[in-house]
Amino acid sequence: MKFFIDTANLDEIKEAYDLGVLDGVTTNPSLMAKEGISGEENIRNHYKTICGIVDDKVSAEVIATDFDGIVKEGKALAKIDDKIVVKVPMIKEGIKAIKYFHSEGIRTNCTLVFSAGQAILAAKAGATYLSPFIGRLDDIAFDGLELISQIVHIYQNYGFETEILAASLRHTMHLVKCAEIGADVVTCPLKVITGLLNHPLTDKGLAQFLADHAKANKG
Ligand code: G3P
């Protein structure tokens, strides 16, 4: 399972990369705005900087919602760096654009996915990645993880090559459950990745080991 970090914050990206387990980055317009990044030039430069930090895929989202606009913006984003994956919303014009990008060899991440039907459509169009939002489904009392299971099952039935990129993860259990279910990728905030380190018995056990070592080696 690949780990992507879901942020546009450079310090968090560097911290996750330094851990040695990061496979990529996903961003969205809200995350870029949160970092105060605005204007075409600044946005482009920020993506360049992110691509300079990580070894692999960086999802950059289009703002346009019409086919021509999505294609124009997506092509410009893809030219920034080979690592860029064009993130396209799950709308009619988006699906047409994903199909077009697929024929042009441009990688895509179909975002804002909340149903199995949308997942089938994106795979048919040739999306490289599919981003179902688990946490936002949970927020409205639907089972986000159940959707991931459903999509894994459907994609296996037909050998769809689209990778399931579980998004909108809120805690480490989401991540562990995604691994059990068989999501190809998870994208999550830094705290979810570093949260995997934590177990009270690890802390207690290490403290005991160090104390015993110190006792046996004193003087
Ligand atoms: O980037 C897409 C997704 O991961 C958003 O997550 O926490 O805003 O629902 P969240």
Would you summarize the structure shown here?
The chain has about 220 residues and is α/β, with parallel strands linked by helices. It has helices at about 10-20, 30-35, 40-55, 65-80, 90-105, 115-125, 135-140, 145-160, 170-180, 190-195, 200-215; strands spanning about 1-5, 25, 55-60, 85-90, 110-115, 130, 165, 185-190.
String of helices and strands = EHEHHEHEHEHEHHEHEHH
Instruction: Give the strand line-up of the largest sheet.
Output: 1-2-3-4-5-6-7-8
Q: Enumerate how many helices there are, as a single number.
A: 11
> Which overall shape is indicated by the principal axes computed on the Cα atoms?
globular
N- to C-terminal separation?
A: 48 Å
**Portion in beta strands:** 15-25%
What are the bound molecules? Answer: SN-glycerol-3-phosphate
Radius of gyration: 20 Å
Mean pLDDT level: 97
Low-confidence spans: pLDDT under 50, at least 5 residues?
Answer: none
Structure classification:
alpha/beta
Binned, the helix content reads 40-55%
Number of strands: 8
Major beta sheet summary: 8 strands, parallel, barrel
